[in-house]
Amino acid sequence: MAFHRIPILLLYCAIILTCPESYGMSVQDSLHYKDFRYLFSGIRRSKEEPALQKIYLEAFLAKAKAEKDWELIVNGYKNFADYADEKMAIAYADSMVYAAKQSQDDKLIGSSYLSKGIAYYALKRHELALENYLLAKPYIEKSEDEYLQHKLKYNIAHEKYYLGKNEEAIQLFTSCLQYFKDTNPRAYLNTLHSLGLVYNKAGDYGKSMEMVNLGNRAAETFGNHSMDIYFLHLKGLNEYFRGNYASAIKYLKEAIPEIRANNDHGNVTVANFYIGKSLWDLKRYRESLPYLKQVDQALIDNNYIRPDLRESFELLIGYYKDKRELKKVLYYVDQLLVADSILTITHDKLYDNIHVNYDTAELRQEKENIEKQLSQELADKRLLILGSVCLAIIIVVLSVTLYRHRRRNRIFRELMENKKPIAKPVNDAHKELLIPKETVDKILSRLEKWKQAQRFLEPNITRASMAVHLETNVHYVSDVILHYYGKSFTEYINDLKIDYIIEQLKTDKHKRMFTHDALAKEAGFRTTQSFVTAFKARAGISPNFFSAKIRKEMNENGNL
């Protein structure tokens, strides 16, 4: 009897194998009466089986449409977006926004725009990501949903970080930190990692490592190790900037496989670049080449570039120029021009958009909120006085902001017209110089030759090393500089460095894309922070403002 059943069983298997669509339909039919929790669980369980997962996804969305529940329909499209590749995720996000608008639910609409922005951010389309965050903002504010408000703030902070507005990004991330710690462990770990990235970019590697250590401890506490590999990646970056190149290579190489498995091509590219940079700084140039070339591959495959990664093209150009391989030099010059074009367009548009549509809007919204509050409290004289004070403060803040804006533009114009900043008066500048005139003349002559040779760009210049070069003693060095230039020794050296950098930014379009760290190294400063401080002291504006402003002007004049 059993032998008679075998052909029937084989026939049944053949039907299933030759008609997979029919099999899929039968499975989907069997899911028709399952609840949404069961279907969602099936979606998550089958992520390693795309064909089966698609059946669960379609069943969830079909059931939501059948019940005409807009929130569930939105969730259905979100499920598709979460498990689709990055480009298809945008199409599903569009459907999600459309469905949310049909619901007329502020929370649902705001959440959908936010998800669409995050999908664009995953593609490194920063301008479109910000555009959708700003569309989400009024709906999320009206919904009064605290989680969505902090999630929006978190994603805006990432755009601030991308633009180099480190202090503003730190403020936004920090304001999210405690909320997420109490409500969402994964979001808390993400925020710790993001803060670590900003501190790293700002040059505060100690604070960045503090975030790494906090993240590792929190992962143990929550039993959630989903961010461990990214904390390791960040640890590798900090080791590079601290000059611990062997450790940087070790950590970054360990991080790459798992990050690549997450399809996170951006962080894989960053890891490869800093492995290459570590090898380059160790003078292992040939070993560094394959890693540096990964930046070019990311530009070709994904149109991905960010300001610090562009240095790979400069290193490759210099390497092949020394080898007299001119075809390769020409290729990497062309690729550098492509990278600069992408960076200039993306960075400037995003900078203008976030300033006009977010920063200014936030200030106006704060003003409107205070005015509404004042109008409701006019009956109470004491609150009216308080309101008047608040309004006065706002006026002062707006006035100060306007004054600073005009002042920064005036300073910028003066720098562009070669009007050097006026040196600050030093109390002892006109003190009688008790040094023989012949000695003074020799010091001044040698100092001028030293300056013409641009020796001031060397790092670690001290009064002692200067005295040796000028063939005099350290006291004479300080006294002559103070008497003839009205500056302390340190201020004199720093001003020469900054004047050089200002001239470079005015004349060299490539230098305008340099990070603060790269400019600091170019001028011979020990740290990025000392460079920024010296630039502000000398020029009266930040290097970030000067670089952004000059790029914008040159772009408008067609001179980039």
Automatic annotation (TrEMBL):
Residues 441-549 form the HTH araC/xylS-type domain. The keyword Transmembrane applies. Keywords: Cytoplasm, Membrane, Repeat, TPR repeat, Transmembrane, Transmembrane helix. The keyword Transmembrane applies. Signal peptide: none annotated. It comes from the Bacteria. It is found in: Cytoplasm. The chain crosses the membrane at residues 383-403. Belongs to the Rap family. PANTHER family: TETRATRICOPEPTIDE REPEAT PROTEIN 29 (PTHR46630). This is AraC family transcriptional regulator.
